[in-house]
Amino acid sequence: MFAVTLARSYKSPFAGVWMSLGHAIIEVPLILLIYFGFARFFQHSAVQVALSLAGGLMIIWMGIGLFRARKEVVGKGKDLPYNGVVAASS
Asked: Which residue among 37, 65, 72, 79 is least crowded, i.e. fewest CB within 10 A of its CB?
């Protein structure tokens, strides 16, 4: 998130706001689910493994995308392939 925030901040002064919004899109529903009784669901080992794998794969996918886009971003001044909300919520 830090690298994407830095990259996006060169284009928009609101990059931090968009990153926070994207992060909140994921975090707020999870907090509400836990509050309303889904804590037991998240304690099952199968759910933890599934969430860990999904999160790890998403981070790898985003990292590969950043490495692929870096030549265009640095050389041609193009923007990143996704916005701050998508990057923070991933």
From this structure: 37
CA torsion angle for 40, 29, 89, 43 (degrees, to 10)? 0
Domain count, the chain: 1
Any domain includes 28? yes
Q: pLDDT (tens digit, 9 = 90+) per residue, 27-64?
A: 999 899 889 988 888 889 999 999 999 999 999 998 88
Q: What is the CA radius of gyration of the chain?
A: 16
What distances in angstroms separate CA 88 from CA 37, 58, 75, 79, 83, one per listed residue?
Answer: 26, 11, 25, 16, 9
